[in-house]
Amino acid sequence: MEITGSSAFYAGLGAIQNGQNRVDQAASQIASNGVERAGASQSTSYQAERLRGVDRSQQQDLATSTVQLALGKHEVELGVKVAKASDEMLGRFIDTYA
């Protein structure tokens, strides 16, 4: 009997990888947004008034990135659960302690 890779196990690993990529992208967007705001805080009051419209869009981007960060975290956690469950099922089908 030949045992090949479990598709559920690889699906779990894929979910972990996708979640990690999502977390990486969201974190870099949040970090770059913080750098832009630090530069804007040194402007004059007139320039600050002009940039308020941009700040609203940056706040929406920050909210979107924060949601993406949370989604990535959950995707990784669920991928780990799928991979672990698949590994446990394979261990139950094959008696590794015999």
Automatic annotation (TrEMBL):
Per the record, the domain of life is Bacteria
Region annotation Disordered: residue ranges? 38-57
Name of the featured protein: Pyrroloquinoline quinone biosynthesis protein PqqE
Instruction: Record the organism.
Output: Pseudomonas putida (Arthrobacter siderocapsulatus)
